[in-house]
From TrEMBL:
Keywords: Flavoprotein, FMN, Oxidoreductase. Belongs to the FMN-dependent alpha-hydroxy acid dehydrogenase family. Residues 19-387 form the FMN hydroxy acid dehydrogenase domain. This is L-lactate dehydrogenase (Cytochrome). Its EC number is 1.1.2.3. The keyword tRNA-binding does not apply. Pfam families: FMN_dh. FMN binds at residues 100-102, 129, 149, 177, 261, 283, 316-320, 339-340. The active site is at H285 (proton acceptor). GO terms for molecular function: FMN binding; L-lactate dehydrogenase (cytochrome) activity. The lineage of its organism: Bacteria, Bacillati, Actinomycetota, Actinomycetes, Streptosporangiales. The keyword Flavoprotein applies.
Length: 387
């Protein structure tokens, strides 16, 4: 077991030698530093959400409605607060994954490769976005474990190509995002006129794909604006008729576990379980798609109750601390995808910033688990109460 809590000891030890931390441990302070480091358009793209941003706010506030219930005198746990989990038959040292966030070239010039350098040393797998700035095969060479997130395009042959490429490159799972049949209404992006895809950003997997390229008259221009490739990308980005019928077809393309991300209702989770989907990610896209949607954490117990015995339930949206991870896992999530915090670390300090954020979350999570007297994989509803 990796003792992530020792990170706290190292910080204090370094401080006694006059070496104070370079980055903050408070999310809001790190976000402020990221805003200073980024251009207004890219920062608004990452920080912003749909409409009046009520969903994003609700995601964060929801964690205050759930309280952890320590039991100080529990019998000694097998790993003393161990963080290891098993997902789809694979052992992972932690229950954290980096959420699939696209267009990272607008955050840092090394994009996903910098994320890999920060996440891999702490054993946190990447969930690579379809809209990444680096082709999936290059990312695969830089990490030990990674999953592939699919935005299902309007072209089914392209969807198949993406899945087959990810499988061949060594992905451990396919995560289909279901809540992005089109981009949500995002006032911050509109005010800046900022849509990075129009500048050929976030298109690396498309422009490197043989099926996508076969649809074009000329080779894509990597830095092109308003080119044929850009317009074809925009026209094929999402299948507005995405349904369980589409998702069921993945079984013919890969033998990897298949998850669906963007599930907030028990009835939809049950439908997915019935067609043999291996897992769901309870998520509202961090509030980026629908304003005034249900907070993802409030939807988690309903989904777990409906399908938790039949499929693996994961969670994202609104997680801002290691204690938040513990709450989500106590409510039934088997693992948690973390988004904006590590992106801000990437903006401020590249790979080192990503590693700083992930180590901080894991240290707090392990300390929280030890103080609860639990291993995170064993957290359950008895460890959390609704306030």
């Amino acid at each position: 077991m990796s003792d992530f809590a020792q990170y706290q000891d190292l910080v204090y030890a370094n401080a006694t030698n006059g070496e104070l931390p370079r980055l903050p441990y408070d999310h809001e302070r790190l976000r402020d530093l990221a805003e200073q480091a980024m251009e207004p358009g890219p920062f608004g793209y990452v920080e912003g959400s749909a409409g009046r941003e009520r969903t994003a706010l609700a995601n964060v506030e929801a964690f205050s409605r759930y309280a952890l219930r320590p039991r100080s005198l529990r019998p000694r746990s097998r790993d003393k607060g161990g963080l290891g989990v098993t997902l789809f038959g694979e052992s992972y040292p932690t229950p954290l994954l980096t959420a699939p966030i696209g267009v990272l070239e607008q955050v840092h010039d090394r994009a996903e490769l910098a994320v890999a350098e920060g996440a891999d040393p702490v054993g946190v797998p990447m969930v690579l976005s379809t809209a990444s700035s680096t082709p999936m095969e290059e990312v695969a060479e830089a990490v030990d474990f990674w999953w592939y997130q699919l935005y299902w395009p309007g072209d089914d042959e392209l969807a198949e190509s993406f899945v087959r490429r990810a499988t061949a490159a060594g992905a451990k799972a396919i995560v289909v995002t279901a809540d992005t049949k089109r981009l949500g209404w995002r006032p911050r992006d509109l005010a800046q006129g900022h849509l990075p895809f129009l500048r050929s950003q976030g298109t690396a997997n498309y422009f490197s794909d043989p099926v996508f390229r076969s649809r074009l008259k000329a080779d894509p221009e990597p830095d092109g604006v308003f080119t044929e490739a850009v317009f074809h990308f925009l026209g094929s980005f999402a299948d507005k008729g995405l349904s369980t019928d589409n998702i069921a077809r993945i079984r013919a393309w890969t033998d990897l576990p298949v998850l669906v991300k963007g599930v907030l209702r028990a009835d939809e989770a049950v439908e997915l379980a019935e067609i043999g989907v291996d897992g769901v990610v309870v998520s509202n896209h961090g509030g980026r798609q629908i304003d005034n949607s249900v907070a993802a954490l409030d939807a988690l117990p309903e989904v777990v109750e409906a399908v938790g015995e039949r499929m693996t339930v994961l969670f994202d949206s609104g997680v801002r601390s290691g204690a938040d991870v513990a709450v989500a896992m106590a409510l039934g999530a088997r693992a948690v995808l973390l988004g904006r915090p590590w992106v801000y670390g990437l903006a401020v300090d590249g790979a080192a910033g990503v590693e700083h954020v992930l180590r901080s979350f894991l240290a707090e999570l392990q300390i929280t688990a030890e103080l609860l007297g639990r291993d995170v994989a064993d957290l359950d509803r008895g460890d959390v109460a609704r306030r």
